[in-house]
Write a structure and sequence with these properties.
By secondary structure, this protein is mainly α. The chain has one domain. It is 75% helix and 0% strand. The protein has five helices and no strands. Helix 1 crosses helix 3, helix 2 packs across helix 3 and helix 3 packs across helix 5. It is elongated, with a radius of gyration of 24 Å.
Length: 125
């Protein structure tokens, strides 16, 4: 692997994410950012979508993909696909957590009912 791409596939450091945010704010080109981070342009854009765009727009009712595409200089279809996948994944995780809580609450209620039944049996004696 060349030195220019020596960080491809490696974990992003917290400092790297901060630097990426600053580079985006300074409107640096993706070529320049990729070279600085020793990563490829696709990886940089993916990181921008997942760690800059997604947190900013995840709770929006309506998302103007055209505006975001222009603002971040990333293809609208790529942003839309990735954001929808991320948002759908988060919603699925949230729903699973809700279902787990429901099951847990039902288990607690069942245990309470069982204890109440035992108490009632004891009181009847």
């Amino acid at each position: 692997m060349t030195e220019e791409l020596s960080r491809v596939g490696k974990k992003w450091l917290k400092e790297e994410d901060e630097e990426l945010r600053n580079e985006i704010l300074l409107n640096k080109s993706y070529d320049e950012i990729a070279l600085n981070h020793k990563r490829n342009i696709g990886g940089i854009k993916s990181r921008v979508i997942s760690h800059i765009i997604y947190p900013e727009y995840k709770d929006c009712e309506e998302i103007d993909y055209e505006y975001i595409a222009i603002k971040y200089n990333i293809d609208k279809n790529i942003i839309e696909k990735k954001l929808n996948n991320d948002i759908n994944s988060k919603n699925r995780i949230k729903r699973i957590e809700e279902l787990n809580n429901d099951i847990s609450n039902k288990d607690r209620l069942k245990r309470i009912e069982d204890k109440l039944d035992k108490i009632m049996e004891y009181l009847d004696l």
